[in-house]
Amino acid sequence: MLGISLLARTAITADVMALTLYVVLGLDLSYAAAGGVAAALTAGLALGGPLLGRMIDRRGVRVVLLATAAVQVVFWMSVPVLPYGVLLGAAFAAGLLMVPAQSVTRQAIAAMTTAGQRRAAFALESVQGELSYIVGPSVVILCAAQTSPDVVAWGVGAAIAAGGAGIAALDPPVRAEGEADAAAAGRPPRRQWLGAAMIAVLTMAVGTTTLLSGVDLAIVATLTEAGQVSWAAGVVAVFGVASVAGGLIYGALPRPLPTWLLLGLLGLVTIPAGLASGWPSLCVAVVGAGLLTAPTLSTVADTVSRLAPAGARGEATGLQSSAQSAGFALGSPVVGVAVDLSTPAGGFAAAGLAGVAAALTGWLLSRRPPSPPSDPARAEAPDLEPQGQGPR
Q1: Torsion of CA 263, 295, 365, 210, to 10 degrees
Q2: Is 57 part of a structural domain of the chain?
Q3: Does residue 294 belong to any structural domain of this protein?
Q4: How many other C-beta atoms are found inside a 10 Å radius of the C-beta of residue 115?
Q5: For residues 194 and 330, what is the distance between their CA atoms, to the nearest angstrom?
Q6: How far is 143 from 152, CA to CA, in rounded Å?
Q7: Residue 59, C-beta contacts closer than 8 angstroms, at least 6 positions apart
Q8: What mean pLDDT comes out for the span 279-306?
Q9: What are phi and psi of 390, to 5 degrees?
Q10: Are the beta carbons of 308 and 201 closer than 8 angstroms?
Q11: Which of 30-39, 156-165, 362-371, 374-383 has the largest mean confidence?
Q12: First vs last Cα of the chain: how many Å apart?
């Protein structure tokens, strides 16, 4: 499942780059116009997560995956013939109905693993995500240099659809054996699971991706000021490799760490990266943040999966995807303003402080006493932070 979903996730991480290259090279329009299409796609992704999650809860994984894969085939095959105005609306619709590879993978991990295995499995899922971000955009840029942007768009669409169809063929379970009866009993009301604990972890999901998006921009700003912008891809690659290593190390640890602590540390080690003045020192400076990135993302996913009841886990993981998309959209503008008002070092500071603020907010929310559950079957609610061993 992880192998097949990697195909879909790699293509999904490359979709914005593919559309950007098509608008700039294929339609001969500005980068601002390309940003409009990317924004439309991102807005669709943010809104579509909970929608598709509810559909998975009600209709099952296979139906949703096949339907969204078909939508992606139609969209990406049509990209080369769509005028810009129509492309904006179509990109929003494609984002709204994007193949939910990430959400399904997380639900399946929660269903297919025991409590003692789950943290390591989510660490692998985060490593998979880092690999997709390293490989996807790079492959699209390389292919665009060798062929036309139309062919690149078709290739991205084919990979997304193939990955979605492959996961649908596997039809992984999204309910553990003991959860099947609970899911069949109906969807629990949102007020039962969307409480302070869930809001806390969703807030930290936003903070994590806000930080990561901002760091990417701060890296480019720092190297542009130093006249070394061509090394930006190398620094980002070092960051990604460090994150992969961090995810593998964290998955092997005997005990987990709280989400707020991981995110707070991630924010704190990000701030000093602004002291770097060139690509060699910047490569060293981002290693600390990289080592904490995958562990933080994996702990967020683990916590969401445990806080959500079986009958609403699809919607909950969709909300997590939406929160992370919102963070990615928020990070670049926030850090961009900080860079414009100060220096590239201010960009790293803004990104790090955003992470620290989200961690502090999550910690404060998690300390609120939970309200008494109305459902006796849910009387023992899971803790906010992941557990190393023992039953759910």
Answers
A1: 50
A2: yes
A3: yes
A4: 15
A5: 23
A6: 7
A7: none
A8: 91
A9: 95, 165
A10: no
A11: 156-165
A12: 23
**Could you report the per-residue pLDDT of 89-117, keeping only the tens digit for each?**
999 999 999 999 988 998 888 888 887 88
Which residue range forms the structural domain that includes residue 154?
2-174
- Residues 85, 58 share a domain: yes
Residue 216 has which token pair? 């990417």
Q: What's the pLDDT score for residue 371?
A: 54
Q: Identify the DSSP state of 14.
A: T
Nearest to 13 by CA among 92, 98, 116, 106: 98
Q: What residue has token string 């290693």?
A: 287
pLDDT at 242: 93
Report DSSP letters for 256-318, one per residue: ---HHHHHHHHHHHHGGGGG--SHHHHHHHTHHHHHHHHHHHHHHHHHHHHHS-GGGHHHHHH
**pLDDT for 377 beyond 70:** no
CA nearest neighbour of 150 among 252, 78, 54: 78
- Answer yes or no: do 210 and 158 share one domain: no
* DSSP H helical ranges for 174-258: 180-184, 190-193, 196-225, 232-252
- Is residue 220 domain-shared with residue 148, that is, in the same domain? no
The closest of 36, 384, 56 to 204, measured between CA atoms, is 384
Residues 163 and 26 in one domain: yes
Task: Please tell me whether residues 144 and 254 are part of one structural domain.
Answer: no
Please give the C-alpha separations between residue 306 and each of 95, 106, 171, 303, 363, in angstroms, as whole numbers: 27, 11, 21, 5, 17
* Residue showing tokens 């604990």: 197
**Are residues 146 and 70 part of one domain?**
yes
In degrees to the nearest 10, what's the CA dihedral of 37, 40, 42, 47?
A: -170
Interior/surface letters 146-163, b for 16+ CB within 10 angstroms, e for the rest: eeebeebbbbbbebbbbb
Is 208 inside a domain boundary?
Answer: yes
Cα dihedral across residues 140, 142, 148, 151: positive or negative: negative
State the amino acid at position 85 in one-letter form: G
pTM of the model: 0.77
Which pLDDT tens digit goes with each residue over 157-202?
Answer: 999 999 999 999 998 888 777 665 555 556 677 777 888 889 999 9
Helices 31-59 and 61-78 cross at an angle (nearest 10°) of 160
Residues 6+ apart with CB under 8 A from 237: 134
Model confidence at 358: pLDDT above 60: yes
